[in-house]
Every structure is written in structure tokens, then in C-alpha cells.
Amino acid sequence: MKKVIVLGANGATGRLLVKDLLNREIEVIALVRSPVSAVTEHNDSPNYREVVASISDMPDGELIPLLKECDAVFSCLGHNLTFKGIYGEPRRLVKNAIATISRLIEAIKPERRVKVILMNTTGNSNRDTQESPPLSQRVVVWILRFLLPPHVDNEKAADFLWSDIGHDHPVIEWSVVRPDSLVDEPEVTDYETHPSPIRNAIFDAGSTSRINVANFMASLADDSGLWDRWKGKMPVIYNVS
Question: Which of 35, 98, 105, 195 is the most exposed place for a label (fewest CB within 10 A)?
Fold first, then answer.
């Protein structure tokens, strides 16, 4: 049986990811910031373990034993939508978490590669495919880099995997999942994935349900063929209308 860590497990998408993984009989270690977790519904599952901690504050000595157990690490981390959450510290919450996880996996030197699966955004471009978003989108994204630190955090987290980890790392493989405008739906529906956005992410955004994002991310850990297709890449996911 696979065992994974989910960062941001009590977020809107993280909760759905945990549920999807457990439905696949994958063991889940959920890192949550508060003991009053939105995923406590799973506390009776023998495959669910909740660790109350902030990834930013966890000592290496507490993270390493968890990572030694795991085949994959998911990040659904995000900044709280408050003034402090957007403009306060840590401004590099996601990037620093990915860097820390990667550093510790390298230190552990596991016998097989560990998957790192990062939830990101279509507002972030894939360097490998030399994406050239419409001028209107590029202008708005340029402004967002100055006005919204979380956007820069998302970019830097993906850039870390692309540039620092790269495509031929001895112990880490990765995929960066890019949903478009997130919506809430009660059930998994048809969705499609693309190597690059097929819409203007600012002025003609498509919709992506959080439950579909969770399903796709869980499938990346569970389906070796799907993983081979998207490892080292930044798939974009849209709901099928």
C-alpha cells in the first residue's frame, strides 16, 4: 500500500484530496495547522493519521521520520485570504515548504524516487514549453507580482522544482498541477488535461472544480501510466462543459 503526506490537508482542495486518497486505500499523513481540522471525519480510518503542525515551523527531526515512510508528498498549501495571510509572513510559504521537503528527501536518500505533486495555477507559465500567454494576461500577471505576494510564491515554488530539482533528479520526481478558476462541485465530473493553457487565464478563464483537481492529483500518485505522462511537467486541468 502506498503512503503519502498531504500538506494543507485542511484546505478546500486538500480535504477533498485526502478523501480521494483514502477511497483508493492509500495511507495518508495529513499535516494540518489546527487540531480542529476539517478532515477529522477521517479520524476513524485506519489509513488516516493527522499531524497538527505548520510546515514552516516543524523541525527537521519531526519531518524526516514522516518522509521516510512516504512514496509521495502533495502540496495544497495556500495563503489565508486575509490581509495578514496575503501580505504577512511567511511570504514564501509554498516555495519554502517545497524546498524543505526536497532537501530532506535528498538527505534521506530513499531507495526509490519520491513524487512531489504541487497544486499551482494557470497564471504561472511552464518554462519547458515556452508558453507565451496573451499580452493582456502577461500585463495583469506582471502587476500581480507586485500586488499579491501569494502569486509570486506560487511561481517560485514551481520554479524551484523546475530549476533546482530538474528532470533527472536521483531521488525526486515532480508534477505541478495547474487548475484554472476553482469552483466547488459535489462530485467528480469529466475533466481534461493539457500541457499548456488553452484559454486566457485572466480574461477567458475556464473552470476547474476542486474535487476534479483532487481526483487528478490522487490519480497521479496511484496510476503509473498517468504519472509517466505528466512527471516533470505542469499539466493544466479544466472541467469539461
Answer: 35
Question: In this structure, what is the dihedral angle of CA atoms 35, 178, 237, 115, given to the nearest 10 degrees?
Answer: -70
Residue-wise pLDDT tens digits, 117-162: 999 988 777 777 766 666 565 555 545 554 455 667 888 999 999 9
Handedness of CA 84, 88, 90, 93 (dihedral sign): positive
Nearest to 3 by CA among 110, 82, 79, 90: 110
∠56-59-64 over CA atoms, to 5°? 105
- pTM reported for the whole predicted model: 0.88
Which residue is associated with the grid cell 500581480?
A: 144
Strand 207-209 and strand 181-183: the pairing is parallel
Q: Which residue has the higher pLDDT, 79 or 202?
A: 202
Cell of 130: 515556452
